Every structure is written in structure tokens, then in C-alpha cells.
Amino acid sequence: MDTMRDRFATVMARLLDEDPRVAVVLAEIGRDGFTDAARRHPDRVINVGIREQLLIGAGAGLALTGMRPVLHTFGSFLVERPFEQVKLDLGHQDAGAVLVSALGSYDWPAGGFTHMSPGDVALLDTLDGWTVHVPGHPDEAETLLRHAVGAGDDKVYVRLSVQSNDDARPVDGSRPLTVRRGGGGVVVAVGPMLTPVLEATADLDLTVLYATTVRPFDARSLRAATESAGADVVLVEPYLAGTSTPAAAEALADVPHRLLGLGVGRRELRRYGTMPEHLAAHGLDPAGLRERIVRFLDAGRPRPAGGRTAR
Which residue range or ranges hold the Transketolase-like pyrimidine-binding domain (predicted)? Predict the structure, then answer.
């Protein structure tokens, strides 16, 4: 199976052929995937070299001329390094663009911390008006990329990862999907966290929502799920733990609830290791997720006079 990033190059090559407004701007990373497209559209496939601030500035300039620019590099170089340009060239000027990242939080551990970006979505949360898609499968990446490019002149971030769920779901760039129904609480699995969440909660009486569009946060769907499943809510995100807990808490502000945010920890792991080792270290593998979800649910159950948790 191809990766999300493989699919990105294929989809964008087609969109360049289909829509004369579309332009792709690269900062050296990913250029090999656009060799043929650049021959066909030399004025709309632009490589600015290793200049990430210029990547954003050039994209904003294209947007101001009426183009629909798609900007691509690793997440740490796309959101973190040129954040001032994201804030001013795109945000302040209200210029729409599609930012498409790769490597997720730690998809290439050998690259070290410079190539890891667990805080990208949290950083974009400091800005207004961004739509954020987090596909969990290459097929979903294709759907969401087409949705993002066709979204008028909006500011959109598409977060691609090597991590992938076992199966694609019929995502629509809007509402989360209800994958499983239960009555003992709600787990919201974001993007590539769905397969490990389903494994971790296979025998638990929980509703599982699957979210691939996390901004705007769908408060209505979360509230509806808690009405039937109870107001114990666990958010499982493939980036910084707690990124979406403020949005979820606001959605349930008038409802008594308990909320647990699981994701990448703030402590830097200073050994390269492998991606599965990073997942396990952050408790995002099935075993780690199950242990923390069960502990959270048990803590909220009423205790009998003897002090043991009721089961």
C-alpha cells in the first residue's frame, strides 16, 4: 500500500492537470515526486530551495493573485520554523493556502527532534480561521486533500503521517464518524489513532468516534455522543497530548463531565529508536492506551463502602 505522502504527490499531479488555479510550492523536500508534473506545469510547480520562510511567503503571494497554492514540507519546517510567516503572510493578510505536512510527530525518529512536530496543531490553534485535517489512511488523505484544495480560499492544514489505520473510512471533511456504540463513555480517536484505539477498547462498553477533521472542532457531535454514552470522554490524538481538551471542555461546559487527553507527551525522548518504540513510550500503542483508558474509567465509577471500585 502506498503511503499518505505517496498519495499526496499523485493527487496533486492530477489536480495540477485539472485546475489552472492550483500551484504547488516546495522547499526542496518532496521534489522528486513532482518531476513529471513540473515538466508539464513549470510555472505552477515551484521549488524555493531550503528556505521555509520563503515557502510560506511565496505561497501567500500566489494566493493574493488568485491562485490556490499548496505548500509542502516536513511539519517542523512547515509550521514551526516559518510560524511568523504563517501568522502574518497568510493569517494577517487573510490569504488562503493549503499546508500539507509530512512526518507527523515522530515518523522518522532517526532525523532527531529537528524533524519531529508534535506541537504543530497546538501552534496553529493560536491563530484564527484554520481548518485542520488529520487523515488516518492514504485513501482518506486523497479525499481530504481534494476537499482542502477545493475549499475556496480557506486556510487549511493537512497533516500526513506514515502511521496508518488498517482500513479507510468514508470521511467527508466535516463530521466525525461513529465507529462503535456503547454506554460507558466516549473515546474520540483522531486520524491514525483509530486502529490502536479499537484494539485497546475491543471489549469495553464505549462509543468510539473517529475524527479526521479536528478544526473546527465538532462540538455538536461530541455532545450528541455523550447524551447516549455518558460524559466520560477520552481524546486520543497523534500529536501533543491535550491539544483538543480545551475545545472539548468548551463543548461540554454546561454538562457535568470527565475528560482525559491522551497524545504525545511533552518530555523529549532523546534516543532515536523506532516509531513503534515512540508510540509505546508515549502510551499510544494498544497496551498503553488500554491501561490509561481503563484506569480513567475506573476512577470515575462509584466505590462501595469497602473502598474498592464497583465493577
Answer: 2-168
240 assigned to some structural domain? yes
Sheet holding 258-264, edge to edge: 177-180, 207-211, 186-190, 232-240, 258-264
List CB contacts of 197: < 8 A, sequence separation 6 or more: 187, 189, 208, 236, 289
Q: What is the pLDDT of residue 271?
A: 86
Domain housing 28: 4-159
Residue 229, by phi and psi: left (phi above 0), alpha (psi -120 to 50) or beta? alpha
User: What's the CATH code of the domain at 40?
Assistant: 3.40.50.970
CA-nearest of 83, 157, 77, 71 to 116 is 77
How much is the average pLDDT of 69-91?
Answer: 98
Mean pLDDT for the stretch of residues 168-188: 96
> Apex CA 248: angle with CA 140 and CA 182, to 5°?
70
In a domain, 181, yes or no: yes
Task: Report whether 292 contacts 235 (CB < 8 A).
Answer: no
Confidence of residue 151 (pLDDT cuts 50, 70, 90): confident
Number of domains in the chain: 2
Cα separation, 110 vs 100, in Å, equals 22
Distance in angstroms (rounded) separating the CA atoms of residues 127 and 116: 21
d(CA 20, CA 147): 17
Asked if residue 209 and residue 122 are part of one domain, the reply reads no
